[in-house]
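Quick one, tokens below:
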């Protein structure tokens, strides 16, 4: 569905100029540092290092570095965000990561090549996407095929999503993810695991289960390019991490640690499920990932990038043997 933007007569220099303007105005929310792939960036790295144009270490962290982290540090150090500076930042500043042994995981990569996101052009807000230093657009020739594939997935899981929403009382009135998660905490059969991190990974915002399946739910505000990219990245990373746990020789210990971290964060969870029950739930049941949206998720939508990401996620999760259901979780 995606083709290089230059083939559609977009000039790289003009697109880069728009990107520079956005970053100069600190409008970087539509972009994310992902290295060459988000899953590898989060899962396989233990140290994250950003260097400036003079090859000096600017930030060193043991958690994934976000664009926001860099801009906050720039502000602390009193560095002015001019167009000239942003040009240098994107093209000459670099990021690299290492694993726990110090071995290079993500080779030193300029920031421009390590970010993912999109800009919008003209009054029609046509989206142009940046991946690994290349600009892409959706080929209009495949617009109908993309829509048909997305709507087929929507229909395929429509009844299942209705059943899940009803069975676990997931439909609520909430304006933010935090507000929604607080409502879920009141439910006796739902573990809220939002902000509980294992090796920098959020396995789910909420976990619930029935006799056959454990549901790992990730919530996001809006079904749009930015929101869907974030939630799908989280889900794909969680899926890869869980697969590693299931294949690990010390999987029982890993699950027990996760349970203990959940209890530490939300002590009430210990009354909902025991450590032994939780181990059985996570290791023996089928896994279904849920992307829950507070707004915008529907069958008929113009959110092209969201449709594309939903299709790709269903394929990638299906290849791992996991189900994937997207749903609207607000009344």
């Amino acid at each position: 569905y995606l083709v290089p933007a230059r083939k559609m007569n977009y000039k790289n220099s003009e697109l880069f100029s728009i990107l520079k303007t956005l970053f100069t105005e600190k409008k970087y929310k539509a972009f994310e540092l992902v290295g060459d792939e988000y899953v590898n960036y989060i899962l396989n790295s233990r140290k994250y290092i950003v260097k400036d144009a003079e090859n000096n270490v600017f930030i060193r962290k043991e958690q994934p570095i976000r664009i926001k982290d860099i801009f906050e540090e720039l502000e602390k150090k009193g560095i002015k965000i001019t167009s000239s500076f942003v040009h240098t930042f994107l093209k000459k500043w670099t990021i690299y990561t290492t694993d726990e042994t110090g071995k290079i995981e993500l080779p030193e990569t300029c920031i421009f090549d390590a970010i993912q996101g999109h800009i919008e052009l003209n009054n029609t807000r046509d989206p142009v996407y940046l991946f690994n230093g290349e600009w892409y657009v959706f080929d209009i020739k495949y617009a109908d095929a993309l829509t048909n594939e997305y709507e087929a997935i929507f229909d395929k899981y429509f009844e299942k999503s209705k059943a899940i929403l009803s069975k676990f009382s997931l439909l609520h009135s909430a304006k933010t993810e935090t507000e929604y998660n607080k409502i879920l905490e009141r439910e006796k059969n739902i573990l809220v695991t939002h902000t509980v991190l294992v090796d920098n990974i959020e396995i789910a915002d909420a976990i619930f289960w029935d006799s056959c399946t454990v549901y790992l739910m990730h919530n996001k505000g809006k079904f749009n390019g930015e929101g869907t990219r974030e939630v799908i990245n989280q889900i794909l990373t969680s899926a890869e991490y869980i697969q590693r746990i299931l294949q690990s020789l010390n999987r029982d210990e890993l699950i027990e640690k996760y349970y203990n971290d959940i209890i530490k964060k939300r002590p009430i969870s210990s009354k909902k499920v025991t450590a032994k029950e939780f181990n059985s739930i996570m290791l023996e049941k089928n896994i279904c990932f849920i992307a829950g949206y507070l707004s915008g998720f529907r069958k008929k939508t113009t959110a092209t990038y969201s449709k594309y990401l939903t299709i790709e996620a269903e394929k990638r999760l299906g290849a791992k043997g996991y189900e994937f259901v997207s749903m609207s979780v607000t009344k």
